[in-house]
Amino acid sequence: MKLQHNTILITGGTSGFGYEFASRLLALGNTVIITGRNQDRLDEVRVKLPGIHTFQSDVSDSEQITLLFKQVITQFPGLNMLINNAGEMRMISFHDTSIDLHNITREVEINLMGPIRMVQQFLPHLKKQKNAAILNVTSGIALMPFPLSPIYGATKSGLRSYTKSLRVQLKSTGVKVFELIAPGSTTPLNDKFAGIDGFDDKMLMAPAKLIDAAIKGLMKDQLEIYPGLAGVMRVMSRVAPAFLLSQTSKVGAQWIASKN
Ligand SMILES: NC(=O)c1ccc[n+]([C@@H]2O[C@H](COP(=O)([O-])OP(=O)(O)OC[C@H]3O[C@@H](n4cnc5c(N)ncnc54)[C@H](OP(=O)(O)O)[C@@H]3O)[C@@H](O)[C@H]2O)c1
């Protein structure tokens, strides 16, 4: 797709991939709107990226999504692209009985219900636009379980399945549906894994390089974009899924057991 003169809404634009996307897409000559929960962080981005537009909004809250839609469409009726990027990844040991029934599904509400509700809310508008697109950010962990972050893995596999179905259903419309299958990257999301047994931060890709690959993929209309190691994970998940699981099971095995 053409990546100039679009009006693009990115959920979770204050750090990591969302920030990189915002910075690159602004520089390419697009109108860029970002969201996040923390107003101070949104204000910091406004200083760092002059021209950016920000809205405080929590993607796990359906009422906030409805309000966001009204505000964004009033100010930016030309909105033609949605990037569902906001996400959270936690380490969870099922042996930890202190996690209550509300807390255990937090990533489902942000990473899976968030994008599903955003699409439901914005799709009728996007269908009326020229050069419209939705990009859902999934993960290499959508292709295989990652036992240290079991709920996160479930959300990303779910989002991948949803994205494929969405693409089929929107085939006859002008809305392109992209998926960024992102490999591990040096963003704040991964800070919590420092020092965890079996976690190797040398495998992580720089976010700027990863988003560069994502932008190139979008420009070439690659509906599924696999930067860096995600391409290897794609092949391995098909030819050697049991081996992949045995490898990912080693990450944080001691940490998980320590909660027993
Ligand atoms: N980093 C990786 O290794 C990696 C790999 C594969 C896929 N991904 C995916 O890439 C996406 C971006 O991750 P990242 O690594 O860039 O993470 P990050 O640096 O932690 O950034 C997450 C962004 O999402 C926002 N956010 C979190 N929860 C939100 C909510 N409920 N509503 C609105 N905004 C929310 C955060 O701002 P506030 O906290 O202020 O709300 C922040 O702007 C996520 O979907 C993640 O699962 C990451």
Automatic annotation (TrEMBL):
One GO molecular-function entry: oxidoreductase activity
Quote the InterPro entries the UniProt record gives.
NAD(P)-bd_dom_sf, Sc_DH/Rdtase_CS, SDR_fam
Keyword list, A-Z: Oxidoreductase
Record carries keyword Oxidoreductase:
yes
The EC number(s) this enzyme carries: 1.-.-.-
Record Pfam families: adh_short
Show which residues constitute the signal peptide: none
Describe the family membership recorded for this protein in Swiss-Prot or TrEMBL: Belongs to the short-chain dehydrogenases/reductases (SDR) family.
Question: Which protein is depicted?
Answer: Oxidoreductase
**What organism is the protein native to?**
Mucilaginibacter lappiensis
